[in-house]
Structures are given as C-alpha cells and as structure tokens.
Amino acid sequence: MMAEAQVGSRDQLQDSEKNSKTETTPQYQDTDAKMSSPTETERCIESLIAVFQKYAGRDGNRNSLSKTEFLTFMNTELAAFTKNQKDPGVLDRMMKKLDTNCDGQLDFQEFLNLVGGLAVACHDSFTRSQK
Ligand SMILES: [Ca+2]
Fold first, then answer.
1. How many CB atoms lie within 10 A of CB 76?
2. Among 14, 24, 98, 99, fewest CB within 10 Å belongs to which?
3. Ligand 1 centroid from CA 62, angstroms
4. pTM listed for this prediction
C-alpha cells in the first residue's frame, strides 16, 4: 500500500510544487528530475499495480480480484505456467491458498503473495540451473 501511495503521488508532487516551501525548491527540482525517469525497480512496482488494476477492474470491486478475474489473469498473463499444469484443480487451490482472509477475493497484498511466490520459484530454478 505504501508503494502504491508513493508511486501514485508522483504527479501530485509536481502539481503541488508551488505549495512547497520556497527554500527547499532546488531540492524538490532535483527530486523531480530523478523521479521523471523511474528506476527499473520503480517501473516494476508500477507495472504490478497497473496489471492488478487492469484485471481487478473487470467486475465488481476494483481493488480485488474475484475468482473469475484471477482465472483471467492466470490464463492471460501467466499462460505458460497455467498451460503446464496437468492438474485442472491447481488454480482453484492456488486461489484458496492465496485468499488468506477467505473473502473469496484477492486484494493487492494477496496478489503480491502470488507474484512473490512465483518470483521465488523462478529464482530457485534459475540459481539451480547456474550450478
Ligand atoms: Ca482475500
């Protein structure tokens, strides 16, 4: 949630520059110059937020993925992973496991657990293949 707030406030920061203290204006300009070209990490965070919002916004609550939205996300964005699963119940079980507060929806934190888990799995297989 913090990352979302920081990333989202980038444009607001520039808009509210006139309101900031005059003696710190040069520092604000430096900061803005850096912020106008986000780092790769910042771009990754923005991408995660954008992709979450894209699928979460399809029906109902815009801040969470329903089961249908989750399946659409998995079959679209992670089709290579999904197609490789021989067990047809794997996505159902993933949804249940990720939905830690059991409300039938994946909020952004729960979505990040999915992305984080997949990233760890990819990293593990990558480091194994380097040995
Ligand atoms: Ca949930």
1. 12
2. 24
3. 13
4. 0.69
